[in-house]
Every structure is written in structure tokens, then in C-alpha cells.
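Reopening this one. Same input as before:
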Amino acid sequence: MKFHLPSYLLGVATGASGAALAPRLRPLAVEVAAGCYRIVDAVGVRIVRGRETVSDLLAEARARARGKLLHVVPKGA
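Same output, byte for byte:
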């Protein structure tokens, strides 16, 4: 295989610039990861709230079906 000097120099420059920029890019990577965790947490909260709403609805339906619920007071009252 023939040695190609420009390709070698380009590889060395890429490696050196990557090593030099890594410490400066770390805070950016940490912020991006923190933002992703915030999004995942927000989605998780919405899912849990949705499950709770469905669970409340099913419990109310079960109570009505069994005749145990006489009067439902709205949450705002």
C-alpha cells in the first residue's frame, strides 16, 4: 500500500484538534445530556399522571358498578 502524506497529515491534524477541543466541548456535552434528562423526566411525569387519571377513572367506574358510590364531589369544590 502506498503511503499518502496528505492523508496522514490530515489524520494527525484531526486527532490533535480533537484532543485540544475535548476539554472545551465537555461543558457543552454535559448541558446537552442534562437537557435530555430533563425531557425524559418531563415525559415520565406526564405518563405517570396519565396512568393516575386512568386509575382514578377505573376505580370510580368500579365503585359505581358495585353501587358503593353515592355522590362524587368535583375536585375543585
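So the earlier flakiness isn't reproducible anymore. For the record, The longest helix spans residues 5-65.
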